[in-house]
Write a structure and sequence with these properties.
The protein is of the alpha+beta class. It has 2 domains: 2-113, Mitochondrial biogenesis AIM24 (Double-stranded beta-helix, 4-Layer Sandwich), CATH 3.60.160.10; 115-149, no CATH class. It contains 4 helices and 9 strands; from the N terminus they run βββαβββββαβαα. The chain has helices at residues 24-29, 87-92, 115-124, 139-148; strands at residues 2-3, 7-10, 15-20, 35-40, 45-47, 53-66, 70-73, 77-83, 98-111. Strands 6, 7, 8 and 9 form a 4-stranded antiparallel β-sheet that branches. The chain has a 3-stranded antiparallel β-sheet with strand order 1-4-3, with no helix packed on it. It has a two-stranded antiparallel sheet with strand order 2-5. It is globular, with a radius of gyration of 18 Å.
Length: 149
C-alpha cells in the first residue's frame, strides 16, 4: 500500500487499485486522507516520495509516525491514527495533532519531506510581488536557495 498519487511505474502484470482505510478516523484526521493505492504483483514497482527514504522492517512492532511521512507499507501492516500527546503538546508542540500507527510484521517506507511540505516551504520563500520575478528574489532562486540549505 502507498499514499494516493504515489505510483510512478511498475513491471508488467502489476495490479493497481484503490484501498480504503477501514477506520473513518484515519481518513478524517490523518491529513493524507484514507484513500491509499494498493499495488499487487511480483515485479518491481516505483513510487514517488520526497526527501530521505527510510525502510524499516517491523517484527510484530508498533511504529508511530507523522501521517504525511508514510510513503508505503506492506499489506501485512495495519494502519490507524491516534492523537499526538496531550492538549498542551498538541497546541504548542509545532507538529500535527495526530500520528499514524503502523503495527504488525512487514516493511514500511518513511519519507522525510512529503511533497506537500516541500511546496509549503517553496511558497514561503516565494516573492510577495504577485508571484512575479523580482530579480534575485525570484521563485526559482528561492527554490535553489532552499535546496542548498
Amino acid at each position: 500500500l502507498c499514499q494516493k498519487d504515489a505510483f510512478l511505474a511498475a513491471a508488467l502484470g502489476t495490479e493497481i487499485s484503490v484501498a480504503f482505510n477501514k477506520r473513518l478516523g484515519a481518513g478524517l484526521f490523518g491529513g493524507e486522507g484514507f484513500i491509499l493505492q494498493r499495488l499487487r504483483g511480483d515485479g518491481m514497482v516505483f513510487i514517488h516520495a520526497g526527501g530521505t527514504i527510510v525502510e524499516k522492517r517491523l517484527n510484530n512492532e508498533k511504529l508511530l509516525v507523522d501521517t504525511g511521512c508514510i510513503a508505503a507499507f506492506e499489506s501485512t501492516i495495519s494502519y490507524d491514527i491516534e492523537r499526538a500527546g496531550n492538549m498542551k503538546s498538541m497546541l504548542f508542540g509545532g507538529e500535527g495533532l495526530f500520528l499514524a500507527t503502523l503495527q504488525g510484521t512487514g516493511r514500511v517506507w518513511i519519507q522525510s519531506l512529503p511533497f506537500s511540505r516541500l511546496a509549503d516551504r517553496i511558497l514561503a520563500n516565494a516573492p510577495s510581488a504577485g508571484g512575479r520575478s523580482t530579480g534575485e528574489g525570484s521563485l526559482l532562486k528561492g527554490a535553489l536557495d532552499f535546496l542548498q540549505d
